[in-house]
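[09:14] KT: can someone run the structure on this one? pasting the chain below
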Amino acid sequence: MRQLRIERLILTGQVTEQCILYSALDAYVRHFQVIVPPDAVAHIDADLGKAALRMMECNMAAELTPTAKCLG
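[09:31] RB: done, structure tokens below
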């Protein structure tokens, strides 16, 4: 991704508390800007999903931005 000069990743998909969380951590330690649209991720457990979003925001400087704002 660095060869393509990608600096920001927008993460969407399933299992917020697992796949999205671990992908966000992987991107964070590689110094990518991480954006997660809460309306474009799905959780298995609602409480864990909310906790994962909060962890990404607080611990990984992830930006939680609605999908509509990501597309603009």
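[09:33] KT: thanks! The mean pLDDT is 95.
[09:34] RB: yep, looked fine to me
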